[in-house]
Every structure is written in structure tokens, then in C-alpha cells.
Amino acid sequence: MKRLGIMGGTFNPVHKGHLALAKKAVEEFALDHVIFIPSGNPPHKTPDEVIDKEHRFKMVKLAISGMKEFTASRIELDRPGYSYAVDTFSALKRKYGKSAKLFYIMGLDSIAEILEWRKPLELFKLCEFIVGTRPGTRIRTFKRLVKFPPLQKEVDKIHLMELKENISASEVRSRLKAGKSVSRLLPKVVLNYIKRKEFYR
User: Fold this and answer.
1) How many Cβ atoms from other residues are within 10 Å of residue 177's Cβ?
2) How far is CA 183 from CA 8, 25, 119, 131, 196, in A?
3) Per-residue pLDDT tens digits for 154-170
4) Secondary structure of 45-103 in the HEC alphabet?
5) Alpha carbon distance 67, 76 (integer Å)
6) Is the Cβ–Cβ distance between 37 and 14 less than 8 Å?
7) Burial class (CB in 10 A: 0-12, 13-18, 19+), 150
8) Contact, 56 vs 95, CB < 8 A?
9) pLDDT at residue 188 in the model
10) Is it true that the peptide bond before 80 is cis, omega within 30 degrees of 0?
11) Domains recognised in the chain with CATH numbers
12) What are the distances in angstroms from CA 41 to CA 52, 88, 132, 142, 188?
């Protein structure tokens, strides 16, 4: 059975923290592959908050170029309407069936809001979760999560791993807007693309 990691998000823009999270998930959970899935129309974001989906997809493709364990998917970009994780994982489950086990790779901020998502408990039937936490916050995070009654039954499907990196896309955008350096936060090819297109100014 293949073990597939799924990295979803707006990737506005994709940064080194995303890549570090995916790489560590591969190492710690013996994943065979990670699929990056940029959201087409995220329900929790207003259109003026995110740049065009085709540019976000292009940046993801640039960021993972040459990394054979990573691929990018257009599954949410080409689907009309809002991009709901439960719909994406239902489609992936139909595609891969029993030949694959799915792991949803995400940051701490995402899992903290998961009960506000569409059909969150249905999502737990489709995949397990690999959650990147900041250094030293692993146990505290876990205790906070399992306080929610719906998650107490699903606790064995939530796996936490500590990351050294603590990068957010909002930090990248604010630094770009202020004209500050982001070379330590972004892959060089992504930074060059942003500069060429004059995004986030």
C-alpha cells in the first residue's frame, strides 16, 4: 500500500516552510510521495487576498522542480466552486482506492481551525493528519486539540512533528510589501518569479 502525503493550501506564495514540512513528513512517516494541491477558490479567503490560481500553481511547480518525491496537482484549480478539502480527499480516495493510504500534511494553524471546515469528521474517515508544530509546542498542542469532544475519538489519526522552521506566507507577503529581504524564506526560483511579475507590492 502506497503512503501518499497531501499538501493543500493557497500557497500564497509557496515558501521554504512548506517544503521543509513536506520533506520531514516524508522522512518521519515513510511517505512514498507528496502531492502539492494549491486551492482554486478557498472558502475562507476573499479574492483580493490571494493572487491568481495559475500563478500560485506555477510557483509551486517551480519550487518542487527536480524533487522526484513531490508533484503538483490541478485537482482543485480545475474544479468549479469553492475548494473544500473533503471534496478533494473524496476524489483522491476514488482515484487511488485501497492501493493508497492518504495523509493530510498541514501546519498548526490549519488543524486548530479544522472543526470550522466543511464536514470535518467526514474528512477523518478519508485520511490521517500530519501536523507540523513549532519547536517545544508538541505536547501542549496535542493536549489542546483533544479537548474538543469530536476530536477525542479521532486522536489516533493526528500525528504531530516538530519543525525547526517557523515561516508563514503572511510574513513573506508583509516583508515583500515593505521591500525587505525574503531570500531566506523563499526558494530562489519562486522569488525570481515574484520579482518578475511584481507580486505582493
Assistant:
1) 10
2) 23, 24, 38, 25, 15
3) 778 889 888 887 888 99
4) CCHHHCCCHHHHHHHHHHHHCCCCCEEECCCCCCCCCCCCHHHHHHHHHHHHHHHEEEE
5) 22
6) no
7) exposed
8) no
9) 97
10) no
11) 2-168 (3.40.50.620)
12) 10, 13, 24, 30, 27
**Those residues with Cβ within 8 angstroms of residue 85's Cβ, 6 or more apart along the chain or in another chain:** 8, 104, 117, 118, 123
Q: What is the pLDDT of residue 107?
A: 84
Residue 150 to residue 139: CA distance in whole angstroms: 19
Q: What number of helices (H) and strands (E) belong to the chain?
A: 9, 6
C-alpha cell at 111: 488543524
Residue tagged 510521495 (cell numbers):
33
Residue type, 90: S
Pick the closest to residue 24 from 165, 170, 182 (CA basis).
165
For residue 33, give the nearest of 2, 9, 61, 75 by alpha carbon: 2
DSSP state of 137: -
Tell me the per-residue pLDDT of 74-121, one tens digit each, with 9 for 90 and over: 999 999 988 999 999 999 999 999 899 999 999 877 777 777 889 988
Question: Rounded CA gap, 100 and 95, in Å?
Answer: 9
* CB count in 10 Å sphere of residue 6: 25
